């Protein structure tokens, strides 16, 4: 069954759901996973984003998302000015990526406290997005679910403890993927959930031994909006 937003498209500011609404969501996802508004951003545009993005306002939309705006925010066309007022330094460049979606952006962010994040994501139509790579590790999530990103050590029982904690908090796992650098090395867990993950439960997850960092992306109340 089609969702009404698959037919009508998202509520947004801008001429293109792919180049504008999707770009806002990419920026917003990167900001959320960083944990705060970045102070520096280097953004690389690939394919159609590089070729026609400026005319569609893709650059302003990405910066708007980094500032925490939604696709229907009337301030999107002024996002460059607002970013400078808030002390966000940013630059754009073009990049050629192998086997990437035509509407792809790579965002390399730095926060005021030195935190860093690199997100490669694509806008796949109708305002919907897909995360392809996080900190140079291949991932596969869309933001259509509430999403936990957990970095931990590859220790026996670690995943079981994470899933047990979520279950105990009444949170059901919809999708999950893991990637590790090597046996006994670093593990990246991407866990999509049906329910929102409360702050108290996230703090409980952070206290699990060997969990190094935890980021959380909460889907919009109406993802198509």
Walk me through this protein's architecture.
This protein is α+β, with helices and mostly antiparallel strands. Helix content is 30%, strand content 33%. It has 7 helices and 10 strands. The protein has helices spanning 4-8, 17-34, 48-56, 58-66, 79-85, 158-168, 199-206, and strands at residues 40-47, 89-94, 103-110, 116-125, 128-134, 137-141, 146-153, 173-180, 186-193, 211-217. Strands 2-1-3-4-5-6 form a 6-stranded mixed β-sheet. β3 and β4 form a beta hairpin. The longest helix has 18 residues, at 17-34. It starts with a helix and ends in an 8-residue tail after the last strand. Residues 1-15 have low confidence and may be disordered.
Short key terms for the protein model shown above:
single chain; 225 residues; alpha+beta; six-stranded mixed beta sheet; four-stranded antiparallel beta sheet; 7 helices
Helix content: 25-40%
From the helix content, strand content and strand pairing, which structural class follows?
alpha+beta
What's the oligomerization state? single chain
What's the average pLDDT?
89
- Helices and strands, in N-to-C order? HHEHHHEEEEEEHEEHE
Q: Distance between termini? A: 18 Å
Q: Quick one: how many beta strands?
A: 10
Radius of gyration: 17 Å
Largest sheet: 6 strands, mixed
Number of helices: 7
Morphology = globular
């Amino acid at each position: 069954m089609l969702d009404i937003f698959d037919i009508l498209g998202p509520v947004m500011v801008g001429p293109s759901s792919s180049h504008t609404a999707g770009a806002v969501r990419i920026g917003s996802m990167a900001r959320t996973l960083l944990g705060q508004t970045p102070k520096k951003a280097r953004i690389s545009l690939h394919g159609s984003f590089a070729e026609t993005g400026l005319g569609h306002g893709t650059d302003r939309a990405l910066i708007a998302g980094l500032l925490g705006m939604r696709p229907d925010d009337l301030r999107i066309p002024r996002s460059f000015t607002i970013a400078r007022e808030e002390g966000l330094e940013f630059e754009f460049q073009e990049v050629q990526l192998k086997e990437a979606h035509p509407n792809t952006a790579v965002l390399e962010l730095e926060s005021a406290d030195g935190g860093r994040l690199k997100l490669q994501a694509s806008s796949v139509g109708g305002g919907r997005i897909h995360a392809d790579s996080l900190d140079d590790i291949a991932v596969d999530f869309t933001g259509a679910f509430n999403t936990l990103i957990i970095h931990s050590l590859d220790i026996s029982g670690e995943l079981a403890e994470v899933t047990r904690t979520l279950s105990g908090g009444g949170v059901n796992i919809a999708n999950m993927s893991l990637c590790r650098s090597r046996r006994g090395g670093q593990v990246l867990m991407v866990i999509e959930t049906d329910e929102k993950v409360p702050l108290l439960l996230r703090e409980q997850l952070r206290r699990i031994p060997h969990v190094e960092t935890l980021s959380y992306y909460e889907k919009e109340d109406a993802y198509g909006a």
